[in-house]
Amino acid sequence: MTRQPQNVLFVMADEHQAAALSCLRHGVVKTPNLDRLAARGTVFENAYTPSPICVPARAAVATGKYVHQTGYWDNAHAYDGRVKGWGHILQTASVPVTSIGKLHYRTEQDPTGFDRQILPIHIAGGVGQVWGSVRNPLPRTRKATGMLGHIGAGTASHNAFDINVADNAARWITAQERDTPWCAFVSFVAPHFPLTVLEEFLRLYPADEMPMPAVRPGQDYALHPWVARMNDIENSDEELETDDNRRMAIAAYYALCTFVDAQIGKVLDALDASGQADETLVIYTSDHGENLGLRGRWGKSVLYRESTHVPMILAGPGVAADIRVKTAVSLVDIAPTIISAFGLPADPKWPGRSLLAIAAEPDDVDRIVFSEYHAANSPSGGFMVADARW
Predict the structure, then answer these.
(1) Given pLDDT bands bounded at 50, 70 and 90, which one contains residue 3?
(2) What are the Cα distances from residue 200, in Å, to 17, 153, 267, 292?
(3) Mapping DSSP to helix (H, G, I), strand (E, B) and coil, where does residue 309 land?
């Protein structure tokens, strides 16, 4: 009989490209702590976000529903608790739910399914990125956004925030009573831009050794008109100007991946030291991926694999060790996963399934997942379907 976990530790990074894991033989990036989590758990090789931008993706995670089902369209339409999600179900079942770190919901005061929020980050002023909602007319003047920020070594506020999140999460886990079930959502900013990172991590990635994107502007390929229209408004690749700067941006991004891996390691160490690892389901993922210069795009916001593909690792009771699953899965599968871990019935209106159930079945190469984008710089809604092959 499969042992039921007593706790759930749900860990999320921001903008972590799925391929940027050394356990997946990336060749450059180093993620030793996520590697050890993968070694004792299951990796879903084809996991996708329901929307490749922060706020809609996080609303989909919270609600277990797609963006078009909830209306949390872009970074000015943030989760406010109006659509109930997995946190509310746990609260009704008297399972305490705590968040530590970035949420990117509307406000801390909204009933979003947490009993307590520690170090929460929400959208600016409860309003967010309103300019990104403008469609009529869609801007044509290119903006010098400086989106990637300071690129290189430094100690920025977002680095300090993630260190603080890890330390708070470790202390919180240590303080939990072993006979009381709990659910914690621990969420980091890295490797999201600005691409500023501590020197100790950046020195692991000499910029002149970084591989350039395989497909770049100027090569013999046709840029999709939808993406080309985005370039009319924002073009970070052009702002970088030189390949030396592009290589430094890639190095800084990989360094941020290793940096956030180190913070996750602190949390996993605390879980081990607390004696609760064997009774805690651990979920690791990201809200979306990162283009990292491919096709001349940086950040997310397009429907290509680099932007929509996310890491997904499960470990804990009932999860097979060192297994790779090819079935396509989605962040909307997380809600039923968390609910089923506590033996509770999932909302029948959720489109997803428990990842625990999917992992226990043979690979289903025909399972379809879906992603959509309605946010900043897009000339229309954009849509993607994927399975394990395409």
Answers:
(1) low
(2) 21, 9, 20, 22
(3) strand
* Residue whose C-alpha is closest to residue 354's, from 19, 8, 1, 103: 8
Strands (DSSP E) along 113-192, which ranges?
Answer: 116-121, 152-153, 183-191
Q: Mean per-residue pLDDT for 208-231?
A: 90
330, 370 Cβ separation under 8 angstroms: yes
The tokens of 230 are what? 């985005």
Cα gap 106→122, rounded to integer Å: 6
For 103, the token pair is 């949420």
Q: Is 4 a residue whose pLDDT tops 90? A: no
Distance in angstroms (rounded) separating the CA atoms of residues 377 and 375: 7
Q: Write down the number of H helices and E strands in the chain.
A: 12, 15
b/e code 50-64 from CB counts within 10 Å (16+ = b):
bbbbbbbbbbbbbbb
116 bridge partner residues? 98
Torsion from C-alpha of 259, 328, 37, 158, nearest 10 degrees: 20
Residues 49-96: pLDDT tens digits?
A: 999 999 999 999 999 999 999 999 999 999 999 999 999 999 999 999
Q: Note the pTM of the prediction, 2 decimals.
A: 0.97
